[in-house]
Design brief:
By secondary structure, the protein is α/β, with parallel strands linked by helices. It has 11 helices and 11 strands. The longest helix is centred in the middle third of the chain and has 14 residues, at about 125-135.
């Protein structure tokens, strides 16, 4: 990337730029849901991750829930989730998640999880049972499953295919060159293969997301978008990486709104059904629209 291009598409990393300022969530629906979450000790990624879009999403009846515990077997350089030896499986978790969704009256739920490479099935059985439980208890709620790669093992992915969520998502997170640094135990082509396999097995809507600001160049982002379309992915989200702590990878650039708009236009030209591109965009941003 030329110096001129870099200056026009990024901002200095000393202090967050003005376009990353977030208004505190407000509104009747948000206040109601926040009260339920606190009263019943419900676990959502929205609250534990301090998502900047929490108020907007909750106001539209969307929330994200994490299953399989809060300790991950992988140590990705961008992620704030604790790494270590996870606890044993809670086989009552599917019902707990389903009850949370019912209490919150969620119209569209996003399910995600830590990586469980310690398990023979890598958590895929709990994944499938959670989808089934949500469907039993909340028959009108639509679902997106933001899944790990399950190490690319097809029999584990098949369990997700069998319960047929409206959207199945798996994030690339970054460009090919940075994958080993950013996603230490993951592989770029394996993630692409998971997304292609899902579509080949009949999943109606597939989705992926990438973060910017880790040192990628414009042509690498465009290459990743081309790779995702070649895998027949329907929806892509593009957002700004923010460092969870000083122990994590540093932010190397703050991407400007104009550059995010450029990537959105490129994605639409490539034929994605939906492209969400902006500094505050996260994987589940406007997720309820991605089933359309």
């Amino acid at each position: 990337m030329s110096t001129e291009l870099a200056n026009s598409t990024t901002a200095p990393t000393k202090g967050k730029p003005k376009w990353l300022r977030v208004k505190l969530p407000t509104g009747k629906k948000y206040t109601e849901l926040r009260g339920l979450v606190d009263k019943y000790n419900l676990h959502t990624i929205c609250t534990s991750g301090s998502c900047p879009n929490m108020g907007e999403c909750w106001g539209e009846g969307t929330a994200t829930f994490m299953i399989l515990g809060n300790v991950c077997t992988r140590s990705c350089g961008f992620c704030g989730v604790k790494t270590g030896r996870p606890e044993t499986i809670d086989w009552e978790e599917p019902e707990k998640v389903a009850r949370s969704i019912k209490l919150m009256k969620i119209k569209h739920a996003v399910l995600t999880s830590v990586d469980r490479d310690d398990l023979k099935d890598m958590g895929s059985i709990i994944w499938a049972e959670t989808v089934k439980a949500v469907r039993r208890m909340n028959p009108t709620t639509t679902l997106e499953t933001l899944i790990p790669d399950f190490q690319g093992v097809e029999r584990n992915i098949d369990r997700i295919v069998a319960v047929s969520p409206e959207v199945v998502s798996h994030n690339m997170e970054t460009v090919r060159r940075l994958t080993r640094e950013v996603r230490i135990q993951a592989k770029y082509d394996r993630s692409l293969g998971v997304l292609k396999y899902l579509k080949d097995q009949g999943i109606n809507r597939t989705k992926s997301g990438i973060m910017l600001g880790l040192g990628e160049q414009e042509e690498e982002v465009i290459e990743t978008l081309h790779d995702l379309r070649a895998a027949d992915v329907d929806v892509v989200t593009i957002g700004q990486y923010l460092q969870p702590s000083k122990k994590h990878l540093p932010v190397k650039q703050f991407i400007t709104p104009d550059q995010f708009a450029k990537y959105e236009a490129i994605g639409k030209d490539l034929g994605f059904r939906h492209v969400e591109s902006g500094a505050l965009v996260r994987s589940s941003y406007k997720a309820h629209k991605h089933i359309e």
